[in-house]
Amino acid sequence: MALATYLVFFLISHQLLLSLSEEEPNPRCPSFRCGHLGYIGFPFSNRTHPECGLFVVDNCNEQEAPKIQLLKNESFFYVKEISQDNTLMLHYLPFSESFDNYSCIGIGVSSLLIGVLIILALCFKKRLSSDNSTVFWKKKFKDYQNIEAFLRNYGSLAPKRYNYSDIKRMTNSFKHKLGEGGYGGVYKGKLLDGRNVAVKVLSGLKGNGDDFINEVASISRTSHVNIVSLFGYCFESRGRALIYEFMPNGSLEKFIYEKYSPNKQLKWEKLYQIALGIARGLEYLHRGCSTRILHFDIKPHNILIDEDFSPKISDFGLAKICPRKESIVSMTGARGTIGYIAPEVVCRNFGEVSHKSDVYSYGMMVLEMVGGRKNLDVGVDRTSEIYFPHWIYDRLEAAEELGLQGIENDDDNEYARKMLTVSLWCIQTNPSSRPAMSRVVEMLEGSLDSLQFPPKPFLSSSRSEAADSLPSIVC
């Protein structure tokens, strides 16, 4: 009976707090990870931010199960599970005792709990009006509702949905970590049919969940050899995750920066094939889908390499979806990674944001593939070599030796010069001067002699040597 009391208690609390919370969430009160419970938030908090909720969940970092005390001076309970509607599954201390132990707590507790709850909620409402240090469940609940509605409306096109316990099982409780990013961690896992997968666990719900929606929506529309496959996703209050095909060779950056991986550099023919494969993948996103998908974050870190060293474009969190016939897209702010962002994405004075913005990012990435270094390298001795695109352009224009590593014959030299020429066309400052990705594929597949030499891409108005070497964007 007491178990039912506590279930009623939290169901009522959930509804009361939805109606009482009107404020925007505060970043000081994020969801937090608590052992096997996953990510939880208001009305629960931890000892780091006890002001962020009504009930502190303890033992989140201990080997034993998390526990909670629902009323002061009352018994502690082990928390076995917190479901999406904030219902608790509890074990009375000690952990081995059965649910029959709940009968020792008095069916009069129900009235007491509801009364205490109302008082707590009213006090909490008063504090909310003057203190913005709390995560407010109402806004968060609406965000989850919006994403749930989107996933339902997506129908049969949506990939398979898994629950959080499935994610834990397939990753062996997140035992093998593959990498870490601003979004969270990536773990190796295995499906029931034996296929290896990469499980991307998102650490928090940003804004209204746009990144999560973008990734599921955009990649679910794709089917191409150079686009990573999404096998499924998890969306629960305990955590969100995306399940991808496993790429044993990791990301492209591990193979192109000689400074960090001197023993992993690829042959020039393989680099050329990778650049061509990425171009084909982008061409497909821009023209081959039922809708046009603009990626907006093309960079070596987001290019995965399979066992045959074929490239696959990944990470669609910043993608934009638009009708196939439309090229110009509206954006409220810049998106992408510094060093690869097209100038018009940062400043509209350079032109309209379109699929040509992906072309620019692709060109900057290919330059790094050829140079084996970051395009902007402040570690070199001479100022004229700091900005690689300008330095390499001057060498090509003067028909000078490029001084690139690993060139052993005429074929290697042609691969390198072809990739450089195409990439310099891709990074033209004016978007209209850049080729579409379909044209990029044609240039890469054609002969070097057929390529016209591009104009020098300038982002600086000054003509001094140092200024020509360093890019700047002035709106």
From TrEMBL:
* Leader sequence residues: 1-21
GO molecular-function term, one example from the UniProt record: protein serine/threonine kinase activity
Query: What domain of life does the native source organism fall in?
Result: Eukaryota
This protein's membrane topology, according to the annotation, is: Single-pass type I membrane protein
* Major localization listed first in the record, in broad terms: membrane
Q: Where in the cell is it found?
A: Membrane
Membrane-spanning ranges = 105-124
Going by the UniProt record, its keywords in alphabetical order are: ATP-binding, Glycoprotein, Kinase, Membrane, Nucleotide-binding, Serine/threonine-protein kinase, Signal, Transferase, Transmembrane, Transmembrane helix
Which InterPro entries does the protein's record reference?
Kinase-like_dom_sf (IPR011009), LRK10/LRL21-25-like (IPR045874), Prot_kinase_dom (IPR000719), Protein_kinase_ATP_BS (IPR017441), Ser/Thr_kinase_AS (IPR008271)
Positions annotated to bind ATP? 200
**GO CC term, one of those recorded:** membrane
Sequence ranges assigned to domain Protein kinase in this UniProt record: 172-459
What family does the entry list? Answer: Belongs to the protein kinase superfamily.
Protein's name according to its UniProt entry? Protein kinase domain-containing protein
Q: Which organism is it from?
A: Acer saccharum
